[in-house]
Write a structure and sequence with these properties.
Structural class: alpha/beta
Mean pLDDT: 86
Number of domains: 1
Distance between the termini: 34 Å
Shape: globular
CATH architecture: 3-Layer(aba) Sandwich
Strand content: 15-25%
CATH topology: Rossmann fold
Radius of gyration: 16 Å
Strand order of the largest sheet: 3-2-1-7-8
Helix content: 10-25%
Number of helices: 6
CATH class: Alpha Beta
Length: 203
């Protein structure tokens, strides 16, 4: 297996990050080993499947789609809450934790079952040490479960750059605190993971 760039987009939504990746907004793809790249898109919300397929169809041989699959620290089945109200805001209330109780009790938040994927396993099965791996994570609070777990795994060393949107700690399911998150991020940095404060892509 030859080294390449690997873009892992957790919480892909409408596919805007893949579009930005292919337009060199995260950096010139010509700098990838051998000029080669692949992308893995993980999105729990099944409502995004049609648009993700459309966005990625130009690069079907290079893009793997995992839709109705939530990024997490283990493999299982779990409840996922679909925000069907905030269409103008890209249904941003969707997530593993029904944190918006008002929305949950009213119309617009629907519960479905999705699979979860172990991010450490995803890394070890899809990348090699010679790859340049960029991970983008926007998973509505699940980062408070994923990051501490990843920081304790050898798989963390496979990631070169991590962009992460942090949400309210209460949206996580395992009770991690902001202090726990900061310790985990520090551990990732000691493994050589570059964690910029801001993404080059405007939300």
């Amino acid at each position: 297996m030859s080294p390449k760039c690997v873009f892992i987009d957790l919480g892909s939504g409408s596919g805007k990050n893949l579009q930005a990746w292919t337009e060199n907004k995260y950096g010139p793809l010509s700098n990838c080993p051998g000029g080669q790249w692949e992308a893995i898109l993980v999105e729990a919300n099944p409502l995004f499947e049609p648009v993700l397929k459309k966005v990625s169809e130009k690069w079907t041989s290079q893009v793997t789609l995992d839709v109705s699959t939530a990024a997490y620290m283990c493999e299982a089945k779990t409840a996922f809450y679909l925000d069907t109200k905030d269409v103008q805001k890209n249904v941003w209330g969707s997530g593993l934790n029904a944190h918006d109780k008002e929305a949950m009790l009213g119309p617009g938040l629907n519960k479905v079952e999705v699979a979860t994927i172990n991010i450490n396993r995803l890394l070890t099965e899809n990348t090699i040490p010679g790859d340049w791996v960029m991970m983008n994570m926007d998973v509505e609070g699940a980062e408070f479960d994923i990051i501490p777990c990843m920081a304790q795994s050898a798989a963390a060393s496979l990631v070169d750059r991590l962009y992460m949107e942090q949400h309210d700690p209460s949206w996580g399911l395992e009770g991690a605190t902001p202090s726990t998150m900061q310790t985990a991020l520090a551990g990732l940095r000691t493994r050589g993971v570059d964690i910029p404060m801001f993404s080059p892509i405007t939300p």
